[in-house]
Amino acid sequence: MKKTNTNSQRYVFVSAALLLFTLLLVASAIADVDTYVSGPSIRVSMISQDPDPVKPGEYLELRWMVINMGSTPLQDVEFMLVSDYPFQMLGNDDGVRQLGTIQGHQKGEEGVVLYYKVRIDEDASEGINELTLMYRFTGVDDWTKLGNFDVRVQSVDAAVVIESVSLEPERITPGNSGRLTLKITNLADSLMKDINVKLDLMLETMPQPTTGTEAALRYDALPFVPTSSSSEKRIASLKPGESVLVDYDLMVYPSALSRVYKLPVIMTYKDELDTEFEKDDLVGIVVGSKPDVYAVIDSSDLVAGKKTGKVSFKFVNKGVTDIKFLDVVLDETDEYKIISSKEEYIGNIDSDDFESVEFSIYLNNNGNAKKESVLEFPLHVTFKDANNIDYDKDVMMKYQIRTPEERGEAQSTSAMIIAVVIVIMLAVWLGYRSWEKRRKKAQQK
Fold it and tell me: Given the DSSP bridges, would you call strands 127-137 and 140-145 parallel, antiparallel or unpaired?
């Protein structure tokens, strides 16, 4: 009884082993059928494209692995690269490569490496460009075309640019708003998409602040805030050569200084190969306003009957922008000559401030102390604003020369005469008394 059980177990074990061996043979046969075929059979696969992607005008190295998966060798194997646009062969290269005999039953790295070096045309289209390979060998006289291989061509990174910048008005007054318009253009010869244009008002492209003070200074470094929209605009796509206008409505802080501000712009976009690009640029925004300065006659001692005198002019800056390098020239007329310098330099006048300048003159026709007259003072003024824009203006100032009586100077003269007479009379009286005392003393002796 035990012997029968032992034989049965051995039978089951042998049967299982034979079945497993049979399955292994079948699997091996299936794998071999999948890998090898009877007769010649070529398999060509691209190994590399260097560089990848390649730019127009650059040189490109291409490598393929050629494998004979057939059971018989391939003799006199030749490959030819078709040099269609945008691929250009170098020198006298006709694109034909002779690989000789390729043995059968190859796999993995046992194949032959096929190598080409070509140039990409400078006007090559960006994106996927198809490249064609053909082959032949002994027994097959005609060229056999393989499936097309894809080569990625990509133009320069700066394909999307800010072509122009406009600001309306040209200068934004502190506390007011303006519109910044950027013209975005695609200079590439292929589609660009997912274009994002952002005004870097918080200076994110610069190293981040490490202290609260630095953060506060950065917050106020660019005195602009978008009003009608955010600081970020999106463009779905731009065709080659296409442009689009992007507008930003900006308000300037009332406390902003009048000067030119450099505003960073961050652009990100993708090409047709979904390659992402980022580009940083700068645009200029002028903050300021036209200077508002006026002149008045500050003081003068000119009076009828007096030939010489002085006149002082006050220049007031009532605008929001500072004034620099202010220079004043007083021209002579038939009524007077200038006996001081004809030109006086004032320099800077801050907003809501004033400065004065004085000239000495000689009046040609002012001999009658009882005759009033009107003088005209032609002034020529030149200056610059905070952004060094030049200005000049001619100002005609009028001054009425009055009589001493009208100016109150006659009363002062009469009072002085009376005072002098009183002093003289008092001196005479005191002198008389002193003399009288001396006379009486002399008589008593």
Answer: antiparallel
Q: 111 and 67 in contact (C-beta within 8 Å)?
A: yes
Contacts of 366 (CB under 8 A, 6+ apart): 302, 304, 305, 306, 307, 373, 401
Query: Cα(222)–Cα(49) distance, rounded to whole angstroms?
Result: 46
- For 42-153, the fitting CATH number among 1.10.8.60, 3.30.70.2190, 2.60.40.10, 3.40.50.720 is 2.60.40.10
What are the extents of the domains in the chain? Answer: 1-31, 42-153, 160-287, 293-407, 412-439
Q: What value does the mean pLDDT take over residues 159-176?
A: 92
Residues 6+ apart with CB under 8 A from 345: 326, 327, 328
Q: What is the pTM of this model?
A: 0.57
The fold of 160-287 is Immunoglobulin-like (2.60.40)
The highest-confidence range among 111-125, 157-171, 311-325, by mean pLDDT, is 311-325
Give the per-residue pLDDT at 32.
Answer: 39
Give the pLDDT score at 189: 76
Amino acid letter, 196: N
